[in-house]
C-alpha cells in the first residue's frame, strides 16, 4: 500500500492495525501477499508491517549480485521511514537470516526477535542445496519438484494432495515460468550463500524466540539448537511433525508463539 | 483475596487485571501463591483468576476421600460465582487433568484451553508413582527426594544447585513436615488415581494447546502425543530439554505460549 | 565374480566367506562395488552374497520400464541359483524396498531381515522427489546437487568437505555424465514409483530389524516408525545425527547391527 | 559355578561357552541370575562370563562403606583369575559405571566396551534419586514403588500388567523384605555417589558402543549423548520408546547390538 525509495529502488511495504510495531520478514519465495491468512490476527493488537525485500513481490528488482546485507539496509531504511525507535522482528528462513544480520549491526533498534526455521550460517550443505535450486531454474516443473516438496513435511505434503497438486499447477504455470521471477530467485538464493554470523552473535543480548520444526529438511532442527546455544537471551521450542514451512503447516502455533512472545509485558520472570 | 462457599467449604481465589478471563489451574503441590512471578504478565491484558482447589493453599481441607470431579465442580462454581459465560483455562499437570474433565462436562463454558504436562488418564505406571509419594509421607526428606527431583529436568536441577538446596531445606522444614499439608497431598494424589477421560475426549471440539516437555518424567511427552491425537482441534508443541515443572524451567515460553494462544483474535487461519 | 542368466539378461553377483548366507541388497545408486569396506567384516563368519540388480553395476541394462517386482524375481532366481533353502537379507533404501516386496511373496525363503532407511511405500512426496531427480538427469552437476547432499546428514556433509568435494568431481565427471548410467538411474527410480506393500505386510512374521536415521531426509524416521507398527515381529532402533546414507556415516553401527541380528543364535528371549 | 577370593571375600562368577571372552557387568539390583534368558545366545559363540559384584547375588557382603573402585578391583581380580590378556566388557547402568572406571585404570586389558544406560558421573540429581531409594529401605512396598516403575518405560509397565504385578508381589515378599539384601542395596547405591570420570575419559581410546533409551528416567539419553562426546572412539545408538531396563524391554536389540559389536572382525572401516 506504500513505497519508499532505497538507493534509487522502490521498496514496497504495508502497515495494518495499531499497537507495538511488528515487522514480518519473508522467506525467500514469499512476498507481502504470503501473509494474507495472518493479517487479521497479527494486526488485531499490533502495528503489523509487511515488507517485500528487493527482488521480492512488488519491490524493485536488483539485477546485479548482492548479499543479504543489502536487505539489512532495506530493513533499516524502512524503520527510519516509519520513524520507529524500536521494533519487533519476525523472520522465517531467509527473513530470519536477514533479521539475525540486522541485529548484529542495529541491535538497539530491536525490542524482541522471533525466528522460525532460521540458520546462523549457510553451511556447505545448504549452499549446495541452493545451487541445485538455481540449476533447475530453466524448467518450471523441475524447479517446483526440486524446491517445494522438501519445504513441507512428508506428512503434510501427502495428506493435502489436492492443495499441493493445485499449487504445482499454479506455480509451474505462472511464477516458475516467469523469467523475471526466476532471475530474482537465483539472485536471492545467491545473496544468502555467504551468510555466517556465528562469531557476531556472541555479543547479542536481544530477547529471542527460536522455533524449529522436527521435519525441517532445509534448516534442520540441529541448526536452531546451535543458534540457541549462541544466543544468550534466547528461548527455544520445537514443533513436532512439522516441516520447513511451519507458518503454513502450523498457522495457529505460528500465530500464538509470535504474538505471545512479542506482546508479553514481561518475559524476564524467573524462580531462581 | 476472596472466598466463595462451595458445599459448605470456603474456596479461595484471586482476580487481577482486566480483559479476557483466564483461570489458572494449579498442579498438585501448588497454590495461588505459586503464580507470583507470572501475575504481572498474565494480568497485563487479561482478567487473571487464580484458584486454590479444595485441599490446596487457602481453600478448606476436605477430610474424606474424593475424585477430581469434586474439583471440577469447584471450578464450575467459581465460574458461576464470577458470572462468566465463557472463560479460558490453563492447567498444568493436576490442574490440566481437572481442565480436561471439566471440558467433557461443561464444554460450552470454555473458550480456549491450554494444557501443560497433562495426561488424559492416570496409567498404572503413574498410579504406582503416586503410591510411592504417599508411602513417603511420614518422612519430610524422603517425601522431598521422592517427589521433587523427578519434577525437574536433570539439567535444570543440576545447574541450579543453590536454589534447589534452599528449596530442600525450606520444604522439608515447613510444608513437608506439616501433617495437615501432607494429609492434603495424600488426598489430592488419591483423587487423581481413577482419572481417565480417553473415551470422553472424542467429542470435544474446544481449541486446545497441548505442551509437552522432552524430559518430563511424570507425564512423559508420549502422553501429550496421545492427547493430541484424541483432541480434534488441538495444537501441539514440545519444549526441548525441559522437565515436568515447565512453568519454572521455561517461564518465558510458558507465558508466551499461554497468552499468545488465549489472546489471538483468530486461530482458525489455514492455507488449505 | 559370477553371472547367472535371468530372462535372457546377465545378472552379476559375488560370494565371499562361509557361514549363514547373507545377501546385501543395494540402494538405488549403489552396486556390488559399494560394499568394499564391509566385505572383510561381513564375510568373516558369513557367506556374504553381493548382487547387482538389473540396471545396476555389472548386471545387464533393461531398456523397457519395469517395477521393483522384476528385481524381486532377480533375487529369487539368485537364491535358486545358489541353491539355498533360506537366506538372510539386508536391504538399504531401494534394496530394502525390494526385500520387503520379496518377503510378501517368498517369506519361507527368508530367515531374518535387516532394513536400513526403508519405506513400505513410495508416498506422493517421495515420488515427487524422485521426479526431481529424473528431471535433472541431463546435467551432471545438477543431478549431483539434487541427489547427493540430501542423502547425507548436514553434519557429515559439512564435516567431510574434502571427501565430498572429491566425490562431486568424480561423480559429475564420470557416472553422472554417462548417458547409459543415467538412463539406468531414471528406470530404477521409476521402478519404485508404485511401491506400496502396506496391506501385504500385515501377514508377515519374519523377524525383522528396522533401523532409521534421525536426519534421513529421503525416507524420514517416521517411515520406519510406521513400518515397525506394520511388522509384527520387528525390532526398531534409531541412529542419532545420521543421514539416509547410514552405511557410510555409521559403518561400525551398520556392521554391528546387521551381523549381530543375523548371527544371534536366539532372538526370542523374553522376560514376560 | 565358581568362586575366587578377593581381599578375604568370596566372589561368585560363572563361565559359559567358548570364544572371545565377554564379561557382563550387572546393574545395581541384578545378579548373575538376571542373565538367564540371554545365556544361550551370549555363549553360542563367546566365552560368556557372569559376575556378582561384592554385595550382589552369591558374592560376599561388604559391611563397611566403599566406592565403585572396589568393584573395579574385583573385576580386575577376575580377569587375572581367568588369565585373560584382553576381554570385552558389557555394562548396564551400575555395571557400565564400573566398566567406565575400569577402562580409565586398566585400558590395556579391554578389547571392546559396550555400555547400556550408563552415566559418566552421578549428578546431584541422580544422587538425590539414590537417596530417595535408600530412605525407602524399611518398607518393602515403598522401596518397590520408588525404584521399580521409574526403571521401565511407562508403555512397557502399562502393557505388561500381569508380569509387573507378579514382580511386585514377589519382590516385596522376598528380597525387598530381606534386611541383608536391603543393606547391600543401600551400600551399593552409596558406592556410586561419588562417581565422576568426566576428566579421565578424555584419554580413553577403547572402541565403545553407547546405547541410550528414549524413555530412560534414571540415566536419561542426554547422559549418553554427553558420554558419546567425551569418548573419542565411541558409536552411539538410541532405542526408541524404551526405558532404563533396556535389556528386559528390548532383549533382541540388546543381544544383537552387544554380540554384533563385540564379535565384528573389524569396526574401523570408513569411506573417508
From TrEMBL, chains A, B, C, D:
InterPro entries: AB_hydrolase_1, AB_hydrolase_fold, AB_hydrolase_sf
Membrane spanning residue stretches: none
Domain AB hydrolase-1: 20-251
Gene3D superfamilies: alpha/beta hydrolase
Official protein name in the record: Pimeloyl-ACP methyl ester carboxylesterase
Taxonomic source organism: Proteiniclasticum ruminis
Classification lineage: Bacteria, Bacillati, Bacillota, Clostridia, Eubacteriales
Amino acid at each position: 500500500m506504500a513505497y519508499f525509495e532505497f538507493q534509487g529502488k522502490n521498496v514496497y511495504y504495508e502497515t495494518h492495525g495499531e499497537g507495538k510495531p511488528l515487522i514480518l520478514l519473508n522467506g525467500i519465495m514469499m512476498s507481502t501477499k504470503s501473509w494474507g491468512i495472518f493479517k487479521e490476527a497479527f494486526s488485531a493488537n499490533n502495528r503489523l508491517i509487511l515488507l517485500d525485500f528487493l527482488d521480492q513481490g512488488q519491490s524493485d528488482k536488483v539485477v546485479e549480485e548482492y548479499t543479504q546485507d543489502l536487505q539489512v539496509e532495506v530493513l533499516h531504511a524502512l524503520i527510519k521511514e516509519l520513524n520507529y525507535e524500536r521494533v519487533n522482528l519476525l523472520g522465517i528462513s531467509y527473513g530470519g537470516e536477514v533479521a539475525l544480520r540486522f541485529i548484529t549491526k542495529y541491535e538497539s533498534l530491536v525490542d524482541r526477535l522471533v525466528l522460525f526455521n532460521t540458520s546462523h550460517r549457510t553451511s556447505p550443505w545448504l549452499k549446495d542445496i541452493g545451487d541445485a535450486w538455481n540449476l533447475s531454474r530453466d524448467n518450471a516443473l523441475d524447479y517446483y519438484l526440486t524446491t517445494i516438496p522438501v519445504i513441507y513435511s512428508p506428512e503434510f505434503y501427502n495428506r493435502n494432495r489436492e492443495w499441493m497438486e493445485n499449487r504445482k499447477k499454479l506455480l509451474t504455470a505462472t511464477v516458475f515460468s516467469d523469467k523475471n521471477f526466476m532471475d530474482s530467485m537465483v539472485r536471492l538464493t545467491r545473496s544468502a550463500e555467504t551468510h555466517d554470523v556465528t562469531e557476531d552473535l556472541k555479543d547479542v543480548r536481544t530477547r529471542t524466540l527460536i522455533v524449529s520444526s522436527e521435519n525441517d529438511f532445509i534448516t534442520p532442527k540441529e541448526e536452531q539448537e546451535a543458534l540457541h546455544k549462541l544466543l544468550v537471551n534466547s528461548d527455544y521450542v520445537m514443533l513436532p511433525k512439522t516441516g520447513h514451512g511451519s507458518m503454513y503447516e502450523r498457522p495457529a502455533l505460528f500465530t500464538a508463539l509470535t504474538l505471545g512472545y512479542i506482546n508479553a509485558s514481561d518475559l524476564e520472570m524467573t524462580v531462581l
